[in-house]
Amino acid sequence: MIHAPAVARKNTKNVTVHNVQMLSSYWLIIATLCILGLTAYALHLWRRVWQAEQQRKNTYASQKKQLHADLMVLTDSFLTEQMPWAEGCIRIKVILDHYDFELGMHNDYQVLHQVFAATQHIPTHDAWRALSNAEKRPYLSLLAELELQHKAASRQAVQQLRQHLQN
To answer: How far is CA 49 from each of CA 53, 117, 138, rounded to the nearest angstrom?
Structure first.
């Protein structure tokens, strides 16, 4: 009779060990499925990030191409004097800063920055049209003075920019 409880304990022990092994196998399967699910989700998110990066690069390239075309038109119009001198300097400087900021900061194009800085306070568009002729006179004399001082240098800078853009 002594053997009967020992056998029963041994059988219970085997069943308990078997249940624990089964339970740990279930947890291992569940953990593996969770890891696989999270991996698939992470891959999905990385794919979306990659697609967004590609879209951003394509948009940037498209914008850069458009700014290049705009600069070509502006430099051509400036050199053929189809626009007012100061307006040309300002427009080229602003577009150049958006096209390639480092290129715009090059010493060869500093004259455009000087003209821009010197004319920043002048009213534009509707504010300009609202001024009387007497109110416009000081601004017009400033523009004429700037043109005398910087026209040759600005023309040379724009020609150099045009050559750079054509290469």
So the answer is: 6, 40, 54
Give the residue from 74, 94, 90 showing the smallest Cα distance to 162.
Answer: 74
Question: What tokens does 40 get?
Answer: 């698939």
Write the CB contacts of 109 (distance below 8 Å, at least 6 apart in sequence).
93, 96, 103, 157, 160, 161
- In angstroms, what CA-CA distances link 73 with 40, 79, 92? 50, 10, 10
> What tokens were used for 94?
């602003």
Q: CB–CB of 167/125 below 8 Å?
A: no
pLDDT given for residue 14 in this prediction:
61
Q: What's the rounded Cα separation, in Å, for the pair 2 and 164?
A: 102
| Residues 13-54 pLDDT 10s | 565 666 777 778 888 999 999 999 999 999 999 999 999 999
Cα–Cα dist 98/70, whole Å:
11
d(CA 3, CA 124): 107
Confidence category of residue 96, pLDDT binned at 50, 70, 90: very high
